[in-house]
């Protein structure tokens, strides 16, 4: 499989020069960098730190004088160059390095043309730009990303672990309901498609497998370099819970038992019970899906469960 070719376009107005080595190293994991350009006013004192890095890393500076207040001119030049490069047909994707939302529409436009768009920026980068990219990387995670993390979520912009764990659970249930096992690699790809700025380094990890394992919710099984993921104790506990419901319904006799009462009994006995683990959005739907159990409305229009 041939390496993809990327155009690297850096907005020097809001990105520190200290990141350049890490930016190039990170982008090398995606493919070959064929264009390396950085945009700013090189006559300003703000750009001084960048000047020493440009020759060393073979990055071409593009001069844009600040003729007006703000940096709209710099942004416009970068956008025009990006579209020119797009129409050459020489690249498979773009890496846009910026910490503001000015390039959100550009990222969306490039993706509409079939380009892969890697966004990079600091933690302060607005979510609008993050989600417009195919993938977004926090610059603070690059280099010595293991320092001062302690396994905690980094900043306010980081997606909560609960959201990610719920997404993983839904992916597993979706596949298992179709009779398919779930490979960890495909889970990682789905998460990035859902949340372009998802990165285990945001949580102090270097491997997705370790991040998932530490959740305590999932089991990983490795066979011939392929890691498969399962819900923890899912196979054993699901049938046990169904049998428990059947037994309660059987003992309730012909009149059956109210759905609310049945729900309380199940949740009290199984503290970690979640109907979503069974592929249902409501408890009543879960009960309805159990063999030999049916739902009916009593004279007060309340749902009850009884044995068929």
From TrEMBL:
<dbReference type="InterPro" id="IPR041966">
    <property type="entry name" value="LOTUS-like"/>
</dbReference>
<dbReference type="InterPro" id="IPR021139">
    <property type="entry name" value="NYN"/>
</dbReference>
<dbReference type="Pfam" id="PF12872">
    <property type="entry name" value="OST-HTH"/>
</dbReference>
<protein>
    <submittedName>
        <fullName>NYN domain-containing protein</fullName>
    </submittedName>
</protein>
<dbReference type="Pfam" id="PF01936">
    <property type="entry name" value="NYN"/>
</dbReference>
<feature type="domain" description="HTH OST-type">
    <location>
        <begin position="237"/>
        <end position="308"/>
    </location>
</feature>
<dbReference type="InterPro" id="IPR025605">
    <property type="entry name" value="OST-HTH/LOTUS_dom"/>
</dbReference>
<feature type="domain" description="HTH OST-type">
    <location>
        <begin position="160"/>
        <end position="233"/>
    </location>
</feature>
<dbReference type="GO" id="GO:0004540">
    <property type="term" value="F:RNA nuclease activity"/>
</dbReference>
């Amino acid at each position: 499989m041939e390496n993809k070719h990327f155009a690297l376009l850096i907005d020097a107005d809001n990105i520190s020069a200290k990141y350049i080595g890490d930016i190039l190293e990170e982008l090398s994991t995606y493919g070959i960098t064929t264009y390396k350009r950085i945009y700013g006013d090189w006559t300003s004192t703000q750009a001084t730190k960048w000047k020493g890095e440009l020759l060393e890393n073979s990055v071409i500076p593009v001069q844009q004088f600040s003729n007006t207040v703000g940096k709209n001119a710099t942004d416009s030049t970068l956008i025009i160059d990006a579209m020119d490069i797009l129409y050459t047909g020489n690249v498979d994707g773009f890496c846009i390095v910026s910490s503001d939302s000015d390039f959100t529409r550009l990222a969306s436009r490039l993706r509409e043309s079939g380009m892969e768009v890697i966004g990079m920026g600091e933690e302060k980068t607005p979510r609008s730009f993050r989600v417009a990219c195919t993938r977004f990387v926090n610059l603070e995670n690059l280099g010595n990303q293991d320092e001062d993390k302690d396994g905690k979520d980094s900043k306010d912009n980081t997606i909560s672990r609960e959201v990610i764990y719920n997404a993983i659970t839904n992916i597993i249930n979706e596949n298992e309901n179709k009779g398919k096992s779930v490979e960890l690699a495909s889970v990682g790809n789905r998460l990035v498609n859902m949340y372009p700025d998802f990165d285990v380094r945001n949580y102090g990890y270097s491997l997705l497998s370790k991040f998932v394992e530490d959740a305590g919710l999932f089991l990983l099984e490795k066979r011939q370099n392929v890691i498969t993921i399962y819900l923890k104790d899912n196979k054993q506990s699901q049938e046990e819970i169904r049998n428990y419901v059947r037994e309660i319904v059987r003992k309730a006799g012909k009149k059956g038992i109210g759905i609310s009462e049945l729900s309380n009994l199940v949740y009290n006995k199984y503290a970690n019970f979640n109907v979503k683990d069974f592929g249902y959005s409501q408890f009543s739907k879960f009960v309805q899906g159990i063999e030999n159990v049916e739902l009916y409305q009593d004279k007060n229009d309340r749902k009850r469960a009884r044995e068929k």
